[in-house]
UniProtKB/TrEMBL annotation:
Transmembrane segments: none annotated. GO terms for molecular function: hydrolase activity, acting on glycosyl bonds. InterPro entries: NAGPA. The lineage of its organism: Bacteria, Pseudomonadati, Bacteroidota, Sphingobacteriia, Sphingobacteriales. This is Phosphodiester glycosidase family protein. Residues 95-275 form the Phosphodiester glycosidase domain. Residues 1-19 form the signal peptide.
């Protein structure tokens, strides 16, 4: 087994090292990272890691890897049209096995600020066009896509507009130079890796976990094997829920209470989840 692992590492390393603006040191650190892995349900794995070897920073990363061959019909969105609630409460109300926070929303009045459709019902229309919101998560009972092409996904029963797009067709997407993209924050993202859906949170705004900029986040998803990936709402909204875990199921360290604990959830307007 050690010889096989070493051989695969040798094959992967040249590919990892050319992902820009990453460094060879970071790509090697990611390949060598030891993950704590737990099976949550059939076709649902939870991987977590604390590291000080990525991007010259402390990072706490949680990943849910969902086998769509086994869970496509269980994938769902929940969206509040004009209000907000904790990710954990929305997940429990939906009988979710796992969940993450979704797209951007109105902090004052609630409701998504970008287009969202749930079970063929439009919950919110886009309030104003944003350079940030250029990617769609779209799925039904048969398939899941992440795309920038709105004309190709209209037939799906569930659609969430967010972004920006991080990886498309196995290549890094171009990211506009601005503070949102370039500064480190807590992050939530979603990607597709072969027949797996990848949900990821990166904690931030703490010495224990400093967060990532979107260039770093894109590298992380690319190294993990995602062929397409998009950013979701991050910052104080970043939250990951697993039904079997303590702290109301919240396994990351949300930053909205300015404490390093599991209690700092922000009320949000939509979540992505997998049902029991």
């Amino acid at each position: 087994m050690k010889n096989i692992t070493a051989f695969l590492f040798t094959l992967l390393l040249p590919l990892l090292a050319i992902s820009q603006p990453s460094t060879e040191k970071d790509s090697i650190a990611f390949v060598q990272q030891q993950w704590q892995t737990n099976k949550i349900a059939r076709g649902v794995l939870w991987k977590s890691a604390k590291t000080s070897n990525l991007f010259n920073s402390n990072q706490i990363i949680n990943i849910l890897e969902i086998d769509l061959k086994k869970n496509q019909k269980k994938l769902a969105l929940k969206a509040l049209p004009q209000s907000r609630e904790l990710t954990s409460k929305l997940a429990k109300e939906s009988n979710a096995t796992v969940a993450i926070n979704g797209g951007f929303f109105d902090m004052k009045n609630g409701g998504a600020v970008d287009f969202i459709k749930v079970d063929n019902q439009i919950v919110n229309h886009t309030r104003s066009k944003s350079v940030r919101a250029n990617a769609y998560l779209a799925f039904d009972k048969q398939s899941t896509e992440i795309s920038t092409d709105s004309s190709s996904i209209g037939h799906f029963s569930n659609i969430m507009l967010a972004g920006p797009m991080l990886i498309s067709n196995n290549s890094h997407s171009t990211l506009t130079k601005n503070a949102f993209n370039d500064n480190r924050h807590p992050r939530t993202a979603i990607g597709i890796k072969s027949n797996k859906l990848v949900l990821i949170t990166v904690d931030g705004r703490r010495n224990e976990s400093q967060g990532m900029n979107l260039h770093e986040l894109a590298n992380l998803l690319k190294w993990y094997g995602c062929s397409t990936a998009m950013n979701l709402d991050g910052g104080g909204s970043t939250a990951m829920y697993i039904h079997s875990e303590p702290h109301n199921g919240i396994v990351n360290y949300p930053s909205d209470n300015n404490k390093f604990d599991h209690a700092g959830e922000r009320k949000v307007s939509n979540i992505i989840y997998v049902t029991n």
